[in-house]
Amino acid sequence: MAFTLNEVRERTYKPRDAWWTVFLVDPLAGRLVVAASNRTSITPNQVTWAAFVLGLGSAACFVMGDWSWLAAGAVMYHLSFVLDCVDGKIARLKGTGTVFGGWLDYVFDRIRVLACAVALMWGQYRLTGQDLYLILGILVVFLDMLRYVDAFQVAKVRRAMRRQLDEAIGGPDEEHDEEHHVEPEELIDLQRGFRSRFSWYLVARDWLRDHRVRTHLMSGIEFQMAVFIVGPLLGLVVPVTLAAAGLLLVFEVAIMYKLWLSSRDLTKVLSGMRAGG
């Protein structure tokens, strides 16, 4: 049976994703998935390796320093990221994903960022002799690590909050079909504090959701693309990297602030339940 592009979209696209992925990656990645799935027997892990090799090729271009090599490295980095999305889509489409494949994909992603950050900033340091590029290299690696560690911890805290709500409200009766179970978040709004302070957020969020874009507009993905694609292509490595770093930190602080407000709302809700009980 041949897979269609609509099937790929329905079965492999995330409900919400980074805007760079939605607008600049998925249109190409989806078509590559259709071609690879219907015409080849390529595995997700093989695509992961291909993306990794392209990423290292991008680093090799960056280390050369001058603009023509930077442009080549930027193009290779984007293609590497496209393939990095293709492997997961093939895995979801065919049901061939593995735990090892997920680990390999994550490790290769971090190595690619490290290699490209070192190569890009070292190449510019060799070309200009400015120590600022060495500092920027450390900054890029640190922020990439911070973003992924923070994302893991935020997800962990949110799961813990959902468990507390579920236990307080009463989880689904194991003797009954879970299809009638209502998620705690649907019964209790833990975003009340945030929304009361930022009413405009709902309008922006709904527009972004309609276009399958998540509200975290400067995530690790956009940060990487700014540093390794936009900056090199424009020949503005320093200002673009600094601007992307600043925006990433702003959005990270916003996420922490929103999580803090949600935790306060949860505490109030649980206290009210105990008092009422």
From TrEMBL:
Coiled coil: none
Transmembrane segments: 49-70, 132-149
A GO MF term: phosphotransferase activity, for other substituted phosphate groups
Cellular component GO terms, alphabetical: membrane
Record flagged with keyword Transmembrane: yes
Pfam families per record: CDP-OH_P_transf
Cross-referenced InterPro entries: CDP-OH_P_trans, CDP-OH_PTrfase_TM_dom, CDP_ALCOHOL_P_TRANSF_CS
GO biological process terms on file: phospholipid biosynthetic process
Domain of life: Bacteria
Keyword terms: Membrane, Transferase, Transmembrane, Transmembrane helix
Family: Belongs to the CDP-alcohol phosphatidyltransferase class-I family.
Protein name, UniProt field: CDP-alcohol phosphatidyltransferase family protein
Species in which this protein is naturally found: Nonomuraea endophytica
